[in-house]
Design a protein that fits this description.
Helices cover 81% and strands 0% of the residues. The protein has 472 residues and is an all-alpha fold.
């Protein structure tokens, strides 16, 4: 390995992470708000997130299977990184043109462009994440993975906070998207210098059965989320005769928490049974992981709406403090992910995971009660530290639960926790926030405070699920 291999093998993570940190928490929420208005923004944003994440889950598996077998003279992975990034630039441009549209026409175009962006991005991402296993000797993978973590977490968060975040806050959407496009293009160009050799052996016939199983699991998970989301909407419609706001908060908050909890538990249990059969400890580990991530992922997804409603920012101005929140969270995630790796080996993974859940709930409480941005950032810092602790310790615990010979199949199921978390929290939670935007306009932000409180309780429920995770 040469010194520049550490950069070329990992540099594309910077572009991919900058894309995700710009689109989901900043660009997409603002455009959805522009097209459908504040009274329906949560519902439509949740719908877009649900389908986008499910498409991403399937696309990554599909492109991964194809790149494993690709025989181009450029190698197996680089053609997919190149083509996926070029397609990304096209779909980012389409999203930029959406900014000049209005109404449902704009939302439909945005919806289509966002789904296609998930397809193209995951062509590049599935190939990118195979580079270290493909090219790096086992004794050097730890060093390369450390560089990967830097390109994947702190650098893109800082980059977005000081470029796209500020440009969007200054109402320069095209400037932000242009900065993102330049970052993606440069990272992809440097990734083309990876010293990858063509696949010389003829690949075996393609086995479609893993993808078919994943499609079945994804469809089942999606149906569960759709069903529970519609149940919450129907329940909210039945509450129209009640005018007492505290009662409405209790009833709809309880319904939302119950629906998200059921989606987590039922979705994981059915999919694990479908994929590998009965494995109680592993099942509860995935439930713990998914419950935590529902809170972690959706706090950032709804940050702009929360800041607008809670502190009175106009549409684009909220992008500034929202990107600062992401910057604070990202920095603490990186630091505590490293520290917790050492600590959890000494005191036990479950103790660190439990502490992470409790700290995340505390940080959420500080955030929703904060009277000013300073305390919001303090809450964000506590949440970031908790997420960093959880990432390292939870994954280390998971590796102890799976059979070594089938680790890939077992841990692949955990991808449902990543995609499912954003889908559950946004699709079920969005309509809850919208309900109070309409019913309690005199109390701005009440719906998002309730939604964040639900996410905080899910952090606590992740600790409860941890009790049932008992490594053999």
């Amino acid at each position: 390995m040469k010194w520049y291999d550490y950069i070329t093998i990992n540099i594309n993570y910077l572009g991919l992470s900058a894309l995700s940190n710009t689109m989901a928490p900043l660009v997409i929420p603002l455009l959805v708000q522009q097209f459908v208005g504040k009274e329906q923004q949560g519902t439509y944003y949740g719908t877009l997130r649900l389908w986008g994440l499910m498409v991403a889950l399937l696309a990554q598996a599909f492109w991964g299977m194809l790149s494993d077998r690709h025989t181009s003279w450029l190698g197996r992975r680089r053609p997919f990184i190149f083509a996926g990034t070029v397609a990304d630039l096209v779909f980012i441009s389409v999203i930029g043109f959406c900014a000049g549209m209005e109404g449902m026409t704009g939302f439909v175009v945005l919806f289509g462009a966002y789904l296609l962006l998930q397809v193209s991005t995951n062509a590049a991402h599935s190939a990118q994440q195979a580079l270290i296993p493909d090219l790096v000797p086992s004794e050097q993978r730890a060093k390369l993975s450390a560089i990967k973590a830097i390109f994947e977490v702190p650098l893109p968060v800082v980059l977005v906070a000081f470029t796209a975040g500020r440009l969007i806050a200054a109402k320069n959407m095209w400037g932000a998207l242009s900065a993102l496009a330049i970052t993606l293009g440069l990272c992809m160009a440097l990734a083309m210098f990876v010293r990858e050799q063509p696949l010389r052996e003829k690949p075996a016939p393609l086995d479609w059965s893993p993808l078919v199983r994943l499609v079945a699991m994804t469809a089942l998970f999606t149906l569960i989320i759709l069903g529970l989301g519609e149940s919450v909407k129907l329940f909210a419609a039945a509450l129209t005769g009640i005018r007492d706001i505290p009662i409405l908060l209790g009833l709809l908050g309880g319904a939302g928490l119950l629906a998200m909890g059921l989606a987590v538990a039922l979705g994981v249990w059915l999919n694990v049974r479908l994929a590998i059969g009965s494995h109680p400890a592993f099942t509860w580990w995935v439930i713990n992981r998914l419950a935590f991530f529902v809170g972690a992922f959706n706090l950032s997804s709804f940050a702009i709406y929360f800041l607008q409603a809670r502190f009175g920012y106009d549409q684009e101005k909220a992008a500034g403090p929202a990107s600062t929140m992401l910057y604070v969270v990202g920095g603490l995630v990186f630091v505590f992910a490293i520290v917790s790796g050492v600590v959890s080996e000494k005191v036990g993974h479950k103790r660190v995971i439990a502490l992470a859940g409790l700290l995340a709930a505390l940080g959420t409480l500080v955030t929703i009660l904060a009277p000013d941005l300073t305390l919001v950032y303090v809450g964000s810092a506590i949440i970031g530290a908790a997420i960093g602790m959880f990432y390292t310790a939870n994954w280390a615990l998971g590796t102890q639960l799976v059979p070594a010979a089938e680790a890939g199949r077992y841990l692949g199921i955990s991808n449902l926790a990543g995609a499912g978390a954003g889908a559950i929290g946004a699709y079920i939670g969005g309509p809850i926030a919208d309900f109070f935007t309409v019913r309690a306009p005199q109390t701005p932000g009440l719906g998002y405070v309730l939604l964040f409180a639900i996410y905080g309780v899910l952090f606590l429920l992740s600790v409860v699920a941890l009790v049932r995770v008992n490594p053999a």
